[in-house]
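How a chain folds remains the central question behind the approach discussed here. The record that follows shows the chain in one-letter code together with its fold in token form:
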Amino acid sequence: MELIRGIHNIRPQHFGCVLTIGNFDGVHLGHAAVLKGLLADAKENNLPSTVMLFEPQPQEFFAKNNAPARLTRLRDKLRLLSNLGIERVICISFNQAFANMHAEQFVSDILIKKLGVKALTVGDDFRFGKQRQGNFSLLATMGTQVGMSVKSTASFRQLNARVSSTLIREALAEGDLVSAKVMLGHNYAISGRVIHGWKKGRELGFRTANIALKRQVCPVNGVFAVQVMIAGKKVFGVANIGNKPTFNGTRALLEVHLFDFAQDIYGQFMHVELIEKLRNEKKFETLTQLTAQIATDVAAAKQCFGLN
């Protein structure tokens, strides 16, 4: 899959495609239905299937830390899109200059002149351009003038009407990993590079591999039994996702205690699938209480995987 980072990297060879536009947060089954239709259009027109998305996501740009929790980082989003067979992703930097672009200019300069979009698929509630002045009707009108067909994602989502990023966030917030998995089509996961932490787990007898959760809002919180891919191996473990309240932490962190694993993995990429929620995160009055609870969590996670 080809990744095009920014409008300035759209080249003449990228002219001619079928396109869909959106956040694709989570790349869930509703998205998969849309992308299946996109792939069919691509085959029919003998043109590359192309997804346009934005970094940061528009709500993150406008609402900052009040934006909804993101389900997937860009790297995971790209991996999932590639797995579904998408040939090309255009990642637009959503900044003030782009936010100020008039809707007609976006359609004319980017969709028509730069990309030569033959078939476009968007939600019928899709809004774009300065002050959200562009809509589905504008796309359809301008598309008719240049031979660009425009269709609504609603035609692809009838069987997945109850699948949305919002509903997945709600399920995750409630600790309902089963419902989230049904809507996603896979276990909810968090990925990132292993960083150095405070080394508190090591002091307590439970070493952890840590991933910084760079955004302020995380869709999950608590202690989970997890399945991890690291250094080419599948490893089971127990993870805490939160702010480390016992240590008065302020930044969200994913900490994983890996079972029967002692390799040096700092800087390596780790993929953590959440299998079962064990409890909510809580603050302990003493380190002795915390250590005892971690031991209980480890036993519960091992039981989840039949390792006891």
